[in-house]
Amino acid sequence: MAGIEIRNLRKHFGELHAVDGVDLSIRDGEFLVLLGSSGSGKTTLLRMIAGLEQPTSGEIAIGGERMDGDVPPRARGIAMVFQSYALYPHRTVFQNIAFPLEANRTPRAQITEKVRWAADLFGITRYLDRYPRQLSGGERQRVALCRAIVRDPHVFLLDEPLANLDAKLRNTARDDLKRLQRRIKTTTVYVTHDQVEAMGLGDRIVVMEHGRIRQVGTPREVYENPADTFVATFVGQPPMNLLNEGDTLIGFRPEHFLPRRVFGADADLRSFPFTVRRVEYLGSDRYVYGTVPAGGGASDVAVIAELPGNVAVEIPEGQTQEFAVPRRAVHVFDAETGVRRGK
Amino acid sequence: MSRRKARRIAKRVGLYAAAIGLVTFAGFPFYWMLITAFKQNRDLYVGASDTGHVPWIFNDPPTLEHVKLLFTQTEFPRWVLNTLLVVVVVVGITVVVAVPAGYSLARLAGQWGQRMGMGIFFTYLIPPTLLFVPFARLVSLLHLQDSLWSLILIYPTMTIPFCTWLVMGFLRSVPWDIEEQAMIDGYSRLAVILKVAPRLIVPGILTVVVFTFTLVLQEFVYALTFISSVDKMTVSLGVPIALVRGDVYHWGALMAAALFTSIPLAIVYNAFIDRFIQGFTVGAVKG
Amino acid sequence: MKRRALADRADVLGGVMLAPALIYVTLLVGVPFLLAILLSFSNATAGSLRFEFVGLRNYGAILRDPIFLRALRNTAVVAIGSQILVIALATAAAQVFRATFRGKRFFRFVLLLPWAVPVSLAAIAWTWIFDSTFSVINWTLKVSGLLHGWLYWLGDPTLALFAIIIVQTWRIFPFATVIVLAGMSSLPSEILEAAVVDGAGFWRRLLQIELPLLTPVFAVAVLFGVVYTATDLGVVYILTGGGPANTTHVLPTLAFQRGILGADLGQGAAIAVFLLPFLVVVAVAMLRLARQTEVGGARDESP
Fold first, then answer.
1. Is any Cβ of chain B less than 8 angstroms from the Cβ of A73?
2. Which residues of chain A are within 8 Å of residue C209 when distances are taken between CB atoms?
3. pTM of the predicted structure, to 2 decimals
4. What is the ipTM of this complex?
5. How many other C-beta atoms are found inside a 10 Å radius of the C-beta of residue B143?
6. Domains and CATH numbers, chain B
């Protein structure tokens, strides 16, 4: 078990700064999610921790030990699960899982024991004699996890392992993964672009963009107190609404933007005349797309409201209604930098 | 220096050593060709048992006498002309025949097109050293013996199968879209083939031209079988066979000829190597 | 109305475009191929129009001929021996060329030269290199103290065969390198990285992961290599002419000597026919190997 210390880490590919000065402390045993869109640097950061990429500058320490650029992956006590699972197609499942142990020259008897233990843990014992091409996506993913776990690594590195599964499978896989990690308590760094996944899995989330960290925090912190407009609009679906107001941007989430009459008469609110363009009925919620007049003669701003199913107010399209947001749910950001100013 | 760093450096050194070793093995004959072509005879014809004399360097200043001999007193210029003639005609035939065939197999023939393509490719594997026996008969029947026309007739049997397969493979990596779009826009299939397709397969055609060119330049067996008069020879045949007076090889002139022929070929090969490989691997490895 | 339909019919157009190639190949490859086999059963000569079937007489004659048997053996030895060396060299060269280093362009250019050069010209150059009196190789070996006698390369049966193997290896390995390199770069990088993360060192990765996955690629390279080598006439003809005393003949050169120079087409054809089983066996074996490993998931992709 080990924590990871990252100090001022940079990775430049010529002109491109893939990772641009990252400081991060990952606690021993935590499940940390690196969240960002493609190009944010999250995968590059993961690969540098793994030792597959050499940093341009900066330090990485795993379990207190400095990992210089020339420390190979196998000496770092890490295991990695790739997005494509990277199973060896010419070896059986058993041989796939056994490979890291063979590379470590573990005695044969121990290998068999460990492979069976891991296969048991993930419920794939009956597949041990099959080849990867004979397995489904979910099964292959479990084999990849087995192969990772069998070395008793100090750190798990996972690169979007659920991305290639279909939606239904993803939910159960997420659940399995989290329960497993709770059980074996290995430090886990998990890369994804899916913010739902991040919120569901992470003890803490690291939101990245353009090679820099925008915010580190628990899912709650990141959602309720976004550090800047990027985090505010990246996390949360549908994204937070932003309106210009002088030199600030005010933001409020769609689920706090409700018809005025839903609130009590003496509630502390900010109101807006909301011209409804279109309503999407999604079963458990309704998404209402419309516009709100911007201050100072600028054109109307598109705004989304999310009404839970149990709010039975009629929302006719094409008409203007008064909608409101509780004042405490309004975030204020600096218009130029996007950084939060407080509420 | 950490152990890891030392291992890294050792790896690097090993890499360079291997690279140098391989390149030396591949390249020293050419260096030797180069030196021989320009060495004076008295520097050249020194017995190798004489360890005092270093054959790898110019001990006397280089000379152009061999080159002069090659171009003025041998049939080499004639052979170059012969070869060029054959190249041009065979390239023409091959492009006209193989490119439409490749297109047809890739685009128009569907399932069995692929199988037929493989079949055509396999005919390329039938060696000239089997076919030259019946060809000898055929050539004498047609009274084409000792004529460049025999080569012009026979060389396409090598180039057409391979180039058809090349074009087929190449086209499989070019998406349908533009042609489909043209057909949706109202062009008939024929119009698509005549107007739209050519632009798309220019690189494929180019590869065909280059491959045919190199194949004609390199071909030896058929030339040896069908051509006997020195003035009708191609470069590939004449140089090793006819640059000899009696029992004596003119090594200087010989190596000069080899060098002058190899260099343009090497340049061409180097420029087109990636295309060739695409053809080979896309076709072969993916079946 | 009819004209338009014709211009749209894929099968008609396809047929028309394919026809010249098909006709050419059938008439000038297919027919001669069958003719070659027929000729092997005849006593035809190049000069006259004589053609009578003589059954298996040609085959009987060559199978009793020690020169033929030796040529058969030589062909196998040269083809297999050279390909083993080629695979080893090509793998090494591919490893070298995968890395980036200065001067790589130049190295690649030189490495390609043996393949680019016409066979006959390369052969004549090597004849000069192996020359009994002036051989640079002998000089170099002698000067570095490795040679104490003298090597009469092309005059000694064993040495001459060895020389032929060297030249064939030299000729083919650049081509094989290029194929292996292409194969290596098509290996999914994540699989190799997984092996690195799993703790496999250089040799384990190479032998247990890379090479097995490259089997179809090697199969293709070996197939071409064997075909180019076993059916090659130029190198042997120019280097030794089959000598000394018919000891270094390979099937192509012997077929040429008997069938073309000796004008005995029947015998020439029979000798050349012996190349076929060679090629067919190799082709089938290699393609089966390639198919097997390919379907077996060398192209393992996400579900």
1. no
2. 88
3. 0.77
4. 0.83
5. 10
6. 3-63 (no CATH), 67-284 (1.10.3720.10)
